[in-house]
From TrEMBL:
MF-aspect GO terms: transaminase activity
Species of the source: Nesterenkonia halobia
Keyword terms, alphabetized: Aminotransferase, Pyridoxal phosphate, Transferase
Annotated Gene3D superfamilies: Aspartate Aminotransferase, domain 1, Type I PLP-dependent aspartate aminotransferase-like (Major domain)
Lineage of the species this protein comes from: Bacteria, Bacillati, Actinomycetota, Actinomycetes, Micrococcales
Protein name: Aminotransferase class III-fold pyridoxal phosphate-dependent enzyme
Transit peptide recorded as keyword: no
Pfam annotation, one family: Aminotran_3
Family: Belongs to the class-III pyridoxal-phosphate-dependent aminotransferase family.
Cofactor: pyridoxal 5'-phosphate
Tree of life domain: Bacteria
Amino acid sequence: MATLSPHLKQATPVVAERGEGVHLFDDAGGRWLDFTAGIGVTSTGHCHPKVVAAAQEQVGRLIHGQYTTIMHRPLQQLTERLGEVLPEHLDSLFFSNSGSEAAEAAVRLARQATGKPNIIAFHGGFHGRTMGAASLTTSGTKIRAGFSPLMGGVVVAPFPDADHYGWDQETTTDFALKELDRLFATVTSPDDTAAMIIEPVLGEGGYMPANTRFLQGLRERADRHGVLLILDEVQTGWGRTGAFWGKDHFGVEADIMMTAKGLASGFPLSGIAATSEIMARAWPGSQGGTYGANAVACAAALATLDVIEEEGLVANAAGRGARLREGLEAVAAETAAISDVRGLGLMQGNQFRDADGEPDGATAAAVQQEAARRGLLLLTCGPWGQVVRFIPALVVDDDAVDEALGIWREAVDAVVG
Ligand code: PMP
């Protein structure tokens, strides 16, 4: 009998048979409140009727039309529709199947477009598990261990994580920008640097938002040095943070933007958007793939966009996110083991620290498991696994938020109360 590889340790006990909205069900009568949303993928909730109908309809029409051979209607329509939600200057698109592939595509494009080799990534960033994407990733050694030699030309700069450094945000931002300038002066000169890549909110690295002054500082240096700025919106896009894009909180614009996850409500679809000037410098045939822009995934993405607009899901993420944040902060205020709550919108994390103030992954994991036993599915993140994160589908309502908060309080009390 075959089994899954032992390295695929499951974070939750669920064997899902069916999903509906923010709930998962198994065939033994179990019901779970899913605040993982498949790591933020099921943006419109499990099996939203409109997404299901669009996908079913498309399956009967055309499943696959390899897009460098045959253009198809859903892709034409999606390209047009994305023009309405993307920043106007990012008017040229390339599609792939996963966030990791989007990272690969962004880096290869940056190198081709600039003719320069090096990429600056930021500490705690996560960009995927393929070799190039893993080389940009510093959210934890488990992503890189045993893979060396990784892709060359990656330089890691500090992320302004004030909590990690134990400084205030201004001091931390000054430090991070100064270190970046020092890297440009001593390690990778602008003439050798193709791009900087950053998440507006660290995802796997611990749900830590960047800040406006830092991101504007990156933009200013990118312009001054002729270096491209890549924003990885794989986790922060599609309303997750209470704005359509994570970058909207900080008023910063990318030269290349990556998207995946929430884009097609669970169908594999990802992509990068760049200015046509940059994209025109990709060599013909150098980027592509058999499955990119699958017709069913594109139809699901179109329906996802409709649902986000019709149901006001970006505003819902902001409103329900504020309620969730308030409830989590109330629990944290009464719990010495939770040092802080961080994140934006429906991307909220609770950091656990031990009595010595050290990141405490063991307690975070114990609380996550306790919550699962009580019917609430959560995930951990952070370099030490010390952050328990809440990422419900954007359709979540007040009742589900309150139910999750109730279980959270019980689980926290049971483990550290
Ligand atoms: N970038 C970010 C910010 C992510 O959160 C992830 C996935 N967690 C990826 C890239 C990689 O996406 P995928 O797992 O689809 O390859």
